[in-house]
Specification:
The complex is a heterodimer of chains A (139) and B (87).
Chain A (H helix, E strand, L loop, with lengths): L4 E2 L3 H13 L8 E3 L11 E14 L2 E12 L2 H21 L1 E2 L2 E14 L9 E12 L1 E2 L1
Parallel strand pairs in A: 2-3
Antiparallel strand pairs in A: 1-8, 3-4, 4-7, 5-6, 6-7
Chain B lengths: L10 H8 L2 H18 L3 E8 L7 E8 L2 H9 L2 H5 L5
Antiparallel strand pairs in B: 1-2
The chains are: A alpha+beta (139), B alpha+beta (87).
Amino acid sequence: MAELLMPADPEVVSIAELHAGLIGSRFAAAAVGTKLPTSTPKPDWFVRLTAGGGVGRDLVTDAATLVVDGFAVREQDARDLTALCVAILERAGRAGSLGGATCYGVEVAGLPANLPHPTVTTHFRFTATVSAALRRATV
Amino acid sequence: MAANVRLKINQAGVRKLLQSAEVQKDLSSRVNRVRAAAGAGFEARVAVVGGSSKLGRAMGYVSTSDARGRRSQAKSPVLQRALNAGK
């Protein structure tokens, strides 16, 4: 029987990559996850990363769409945090490994855009979209 | 096997194809699928507009059409998620 080829979990590997990549930067304390923090007040900096689907590139590779939302109390910080996340993901693409998953490249589909969140009025939000070519794994 | 094959692109023909009704129909089908996947508050349109060449080609768009759509897109990446429907 033909083997199963499971798509990588783009959220899990990208969040792992961002956690590691933010260390050493001024945003090292930023929380990274798939949901908005529920604490009140929310942290000064945080990142929401969500998978937006994507397409299969070939038998063993998928091009996963990832949306990065960088939130910060200061507008410039929100932009810089989002841009840093994009840079970290792109670097992982060039290095060939994204959070432990084999990655054949990360392309930027949308650079950070200033898009305030309607319910998080205490923070500025910049959003960016990238596409990561991730290799599937055998089960 | 033929040697020294030379290709000459029919630029006017390519331009005509890029603006043709068939291409517009295909684009329309795709953007309507994306709009349907995005849900209420979004609209789709196809138009022949000047791109980088300034000569014009058929292009498809999906965008928010009302406050509900704008709020929906602002809260979560609805259009990015719906993009696959146009494949």
